[in-house]
Structure formats: structure tokens, C-alpha cells
Amino acid sequence: MSATVPAFARRRASAAGPPRPLALAREADPRWVRPALLGVMAASALLVLWGLTRSGYSNTYYAAAVKSASESWKAWFFGSLDPGSFITVDKPPLAIWLMGLSARALGFSSFSMLLPQALCTVGAVGLLFSTVRRVFGPHAGILAASALAITPITVAVGRVNNPDALLVLLLVASAWMLVRALESGRTRHLVLCGAIVGLAFMTKMLQGWMVVPALAAAYAVAGPPRLLTRLRQLAAAGVAMVVVSAAWPAAVTLWPASAPYIGGSTNGSVWELILGYNGFGRVFGENGGGGGASFGGAAGLWRMFNAQVGGQIAWLLPLAGISLVAGLWLTRRAPRTDLRRAGWILFGLWALVHVAIFSTQQGIFHPYYVSALAPAVAALAGAGGVTLWRWAARSWAGLAALDVAVLATAWVSVALLQRTPTFAPALHWIIPVLAGAAVFASVALRVPGVLGRRGLAIAAVAAVVAVGAAPAAYSVATAGRSLDGNNVSAGPASASASFGGPGGGARPTGVRTGGSPSSSGAAMRGPGGGGSLSATTIAYLKSHQGAAKYLVAATGSHTTASIILSTGEPVVTIGGFSGQDPAPTVSQLAAMVARGELRYVLVSGGGMGGPGGSSSSALTTWVTQHGTAVKNAGVTTGTLYEVQA
Amino acid sequence: MSALPRSRRAAALLAAACVALLGGYAVSQASLPATASTASTASGGFGGFGGGPPGAAQLGPPPSAP
Q1: Whole-number Cα distances in Å, A129 to A124, A141, A178, A429
Q2: Does A90 lie at the interface with B, CB-CB under 8 angstroms?
Q3: What's the confidence (pLDDT) of residue A286?
Q4: Is A104:A70 a contact under the CB 8 Å cutoff?
Q5: For position A570, what pLDDT does the model report?
Q6: Mean per-residue pLDDT, A356-361
Q7: Which of A117, A309, A450 should be substituted to probe chain B, the one whose Cβ sees the most B Cβ atoms within 10 Å?
Q8: Pairwise CA distance, residues A574 & A579, whole Å
Q9: Cα–Cα distance between A341 and A220 in angstroms, integer?
Q10: Distance CA A472, CA A306 (A)
């Protein structure tokens, strides 16, 4: 070992022996650990892979980008919505890169697109086991991995093409690397941790950085070196994080040739997208953030338990919260470098920061964002279950904490189930009975000779089932139904219906299935069924496209995504996802027409849609002045114009 | 931990049974406050762009990006 390695690291390395395996059991682990881990991962795989294509293309906005990425390397690099790279999606492209590569390797289909997210979820479950086991031991690791695997929103984001499953994996990976740094004190591990957070940024921009306070605080408190060294190491990790985070935005900014408009921005700048629309706009409700009452319910103290969010994540929050308090209390006199206290700080701050931001967020907040909270809650619940059990065996206060945690968690489970009274009605009495049985049998922990080992086994099994049955049932229900990637919601269909799903139930069927969308003449519809072009119109456009680069221009991805998915042709999506982005301008549209890149523009009955106001009106005016209405193209709503500059 | 006298054990069991019964009953009566007002806001705000008839292109933008 190098002489530059600090003494504490040499001590730890010599004590630890050969390098530890990544995820599978250590030699010191009990025999049951490896099969248990494989069982948990198999269950996770079943939940995310079973009937994976039942959601079809899921979020057609991202599906169109994946198809484009499978056809054009430029579209792949930028995360463009269409293969002509007119405009990008509203997120950085790391998740699109994975899905695009999968589509290139296996051919574009629902399965090849969704597979990477499913594998990310299974990987996150395995990596969370490894992380928690390093800190709290194998029992806690198995419980934490199980808790993550059965968290409904974890299953949901693992079955759609939103970037959140990759984000979850990267967040868990950053925690794993941080724990390695806590063990070794090496700068290398901390820098790698920062780089992984940078990749999380490349997946969902500033949301990827929300874990940073937890990572930094855990190492600042418990890192092995002295304080100044720790601060220097953290600074190095911060530099690595910023460099990796900024790599893609810098490349986009410095791109020498024509680059697509950055979707979601107000001026085409990726930096504006980072800080505004995907950044502070989400927190403060500016830059298109809209009202907080959309999607995730009103901001406030109890948002995590409301009708929209509760069924996604709230199941284990009581156990996680009580565990965090108990864990910090029990380690209050531990040495500064105590790994367990560092673990409580790491996962506790991770959870608290996410809950605080999600609960107060005034801008766009979708319930599925809480998937980034799930690993921390699962880790706290898993570690807490073991910690409270052991505390209960030596203290009446510990027994009280354990029983309160079980009862409170079961209480929340039943309360959440009450919102879907027709779903698994048996659980409404099974959970109270098991929670009571667990509390009764737990007395065996403190009173020798009462109930014996059988009593302890009953307490353990009853407690686990009482707190885990409801989220597990919700997860199975999630795996058994089609999910709308536009606003992913876990749980039974009745849970979504209770707070209104996208489109109010007018969801299209038979169109967004695996493989190519139907071309049988049925109307193709985008997210929520808002926009569509008939197969007749598509055929007309293809036969009259000539040398034009773009098949057609239309407003919003709810119209164009299905066209891109069915044809694979470049399409100008006016205004990006929502039709509100200021692209193209009238002069840009005129220039495209003048260059022969565009011949057809679809105008709805109400104009160009989009942001309203002067720009869309100007586009509509220009198109109607420079175009000729096409009468025989099968357009049923709106007007198709053939335009000339 | 030393073994407790039989009477203490019986008392402990009785106390545990009482706590278990009360706890189980409380769990069975669990309910969280309804959030109907926000729910209807979410539904109404979002439902607009999904309810269109087939073929109804460009009915207007969906209200929020992913």
C-alpha cells in the first residue's frame, strides 16, 4: 500500500482484508444473506418486468425522443424530440441516451425502450442493499432493499420511460460511494461520489443535486481525516460534480453547427432551462411552473400524505421518521467517525431535504417525483427496523418506540387504503390484527420466558407484514395495469381515478401499445388523447413530402409525438411539449419554408394553439397568408396548409 | 436479563394484550383527512387536454411538462 495512504485507511484496509465484493454477501455474512438478496432482487425484477409493455409507449413525448435517438446520433446527443433535431425534450439526455442505445441494440419498441428503466430499478434495489449492509449490517440491508422494491412509486417509475428510475439508481450509487469514502477516507471515493451526482444532474438537472446536503453533511461529520482535509476533499468532490454536471450543457452551448432549440426554455438556452424551468421555477412556481395545486396537490405540511402523493410514498414514512430519531439518539455518544451515525445523517438528511422541498414546492410537482425520496425512506425503515428491535430487547423505551413505529405505520397503511375501499378489502382488517399481534408478541423481547422464541418470530413476521403488506399490494396492482407516463401514478386504477387521471378517463386504447402504433386508419392520439392525425393524413403528408426535411409542422408534442413514433420522420413541434416555447419564430418558420425544408403546417380551429398571444397569432397569420388549405388530406379537425415563402 | 416472577410475567402479558387491542383498534379506525378540494383542482386542471374527441388536433397545450 502506498505510503501516501493515511494511517486510518491502512488500519481499516488491513482489518477488512481483501476488497469487498460489490453487492453479494461477504464471507462474514450469514448463509441466508445471499439467497435472501437474490430473492428480493428477483421480486423487484418481477414487479418491474412482468408485462412491461402493457403501458405501450408510456410517455409519448419521451418515446418520440427515444425513437429519434435510435435514428439520428445528433438527436441522441441532444435528446431531440424528432430525428431532424428541431427541438429537444425538456430534460438533459442521459436517460434518453440509455434508452436510445437500447433501442439501437434491440430495435425500437416498447420493450427495448422501457427495459433500461426496469433494470435501473432492480440495480437500485441491489445497490441499496449493499449500501445499507455496509453501515447497518445484512438484516438491515435486506429489509431496506425489500422496502425499496415494494415502494409503489419505485415500481411505477421502473415501468415507464421517464428519467426517474435512472435518477434513483444514481442517487443510491452516490450514497454507496459516499459510504465507501466514509470507510476509506480516500479522496478518490469522494470525487467519484461527486461525479455520480453530476450524472444525476445530467438525468434530471437540479433535482439530482438535492441529495448533496446529505452526502456533504455525512462526510463532514464522520469522514475519517481531520477537518481541513475533509473540507478539501469535499471541495474536490464538488468540483467533480460541477464538471460532470456542466459537461453536456457546455457542449450544447459550444456546439459549432446548428443546434436544436432547447425545449422548455424561454430563450433556447440550456442554462435558462437548468436554472428556470427545471430549477427554481419548480420551487417558486415561476417560468411556467403553474400553480402548485396541479398534479401533486396543494403545497403544505401534509402534502406527502395527500390524495395524490400519499399512495406513492407515505406508507413507510412513520417507521422511517421514528427510526431516524431513535438512531440519532442511540448514537449520540458514539465517536465522531461512527459509521452508523453517519448513515443516519446521510439517509435522514436525504429524506428531510426531499420532503421539505417537495412539500413546499410551488411550481410543477408531479407525485412521481417522490421516487427520489424512496431509497432514503427504505434505508431508514430497514435500518430502523433492526435498530428498534435490538433497542427493544434491552430497554422498555426501545420496546415502546418499536411498538409505536409498528402501530403508526400500520395506521397510515389503513388510512391510505381507505382511499381505495374496493381494493384489497381484506387488508383493512388483516393489518390491524397483525399490528396488534406484533405489539402483543413483542413483549417477549423484554420479558424472558413469556411466549419464548415462537413469540419473537410471531412479533417479527406480524410486524413486517403489517407495515409491508399494503405497499406491496399497491406495487402488485401497479405492475398489473397500464401506466400513463405523462403523470405516472402507482397503485390500483381506482387510486388514480379518485383524483382524476390525465384526460379524465378518455385515455386512448389500442394505440399506444408495443411496436409501431396502429396504422389501420384509427386516429393516433398523443398524451391524453389531445392531438391526433389520421392515418390518411399521415399517408398524404408522406406522399407529398418530396425533398422537404420535415414531414409537417404542428403545435405541441401531444400532436407531433405520435406522428414521429409512427413515421420516424422529422417533424417541427411548434412550441415544444406544451406548445408554449417560442420556437420557431415567424422568421424561422418562413426561412424553413424558403429553404424547402417544410411544406405543410397544421393549424387547429383555434389557431396555432401554443402560448396564445402575439407569437402564435403571428404564426397563424403567416401560415394562412402564405399557405393554401389542403382539402383532401383527411384532416378532421383544424386545417392543413401547404405553405410557400 | 433475569427471569421475572410469574405474577410479573402475567401482568406484562396483560398489559401487552391491552396495548395490542387498543393499538389494533386504533389502526382499524385509521383515516386521513380528505383532500377533495385539491384533488378536484388537479383533476380539473389536467383533465382538459385528455377529453377531446378522436381526431381533435391541437386542442391546446397540456398544462404541464413532465
Answers
A1: 9, 4, 14, 31
A2: yes
A3: 62
A4: yes
A5: 97
A6: 95
A7: A450
A8: 6
A9: 12
A10: 19
